[in-house]
Amino acid sequence: MMRKLMVAGNWKLHGNQAMLRQWLADFDAFDESLKGLDVALCVPYVYVPLLKAAAADSIITGAQDVSAHDTGAHTGEVSAKMLQDVGTQLVLIGHSERRQDHGESDDLVRAKFQQALAQGLMPVVCVGESQQQREQGEAFAVIERQLKAVIDLLNVDNAAQCFIAYEPIWAIGTGLTASAEQAQEVHQFIRSQLASKDVTMARQIRLLYGGSCKGSNAFELFSMPDVDGGLIGGASLTAEDFMAICQQAKKQLNKTQSS
Ligand code: 13P
User: What is the whole-number distance in angstroms between the Cα of residue 63 and the centre of ligand 1?
Assistant: First the structure.
């Protein structure tokens, strides 16, 4: 089964309007055909409308979080419906920085996932172990627990619109990338967990790798059978670096199409 590769940028707490306009102009100017790839950019909430208005149709508009509530007295929250209202198509859920900095639990991640699905947003659920958990041999148990929070909400009807991103915490922003083999090992584990619920669903859902992914290592990572693209932090901040990763995804796509 051919899953479409996805390259998604995550700007985190970076950027401003001028930077986003420049990024979009630069990205456009590379004039590369990204046909056959999905490309997304997740910007801070306030820049979503600008991204939606200024991006070419080829870029999927993404946000970095969503409220677990649909409406009501929840100051500072942004609902899935509001995101959908301003044209958001995709949303990150349970990024490790939110789990760590804001104490997001698996239950909260589940509630956010439900909100995203209910509004037809494409949820990207982020999972991944810390350095200490890896060293203590707990990586698979941690990921299994994180997956368990959402697995029963996944099915053949929504799988093609849903993503799981494996982002080992020790690889985020550190320059330490998981080797392609390490990434594949975990991705295969994730897919097997999903397959224990539904084999067809597991084949359809796309699994992204995130953590110091860049132009120089993207091809190897994307060539792994269970790695269906990347979630890119630092290297998404300039259009040039981000395009370099998209080009590697394109190269991978061309390779599979010709084989
Ligand atoms: P870096 O690419 O900067 O390591 O960040 C990865 C990430 O957290 C994307 O969500």
Answer: 15
pLDDT of residue 1: 60
Q: What is residue 2's predicted lDDT score, i.e. its pLDDT? A: 84
Q: Are 146 and 166 in contact (CB under 8 A)?
A: no
CA of 234 to the centre of ligand 1 (A): 6
CA distance 142 to 97: 16
Looking at residue 33, what is its pLDDT? 83
First to last CA, the chain: 14
CB 93 within 8 A of CB 66: yes
Q: List residues near ligand 1 (CB under 6 A).
A: 10, 95, 167, 172-173, 210-213, 231-235
Ligand 1 centroid to residue 139 C-alpha, Å: 18
Active-site pick, 95, 97, 104, 129: 95
Please give the model's pTM, rounded to 2 decimal places. Answer: 0.97
Alpha carbons within 13 angstroms on the beta-carbon side of residue 155 total 5
Two tokens, residue 28: 């456009």
Residue 222 confidence (pLDDT) above 90? yes
Mean pLDDT of the chain: 96
Helix runs in 105-179, H state only: 106-118, 131-135, 139-148
The candidate with the shortest Cα–Cα distance to 256, out of 210, 214, 224, 231, is 224
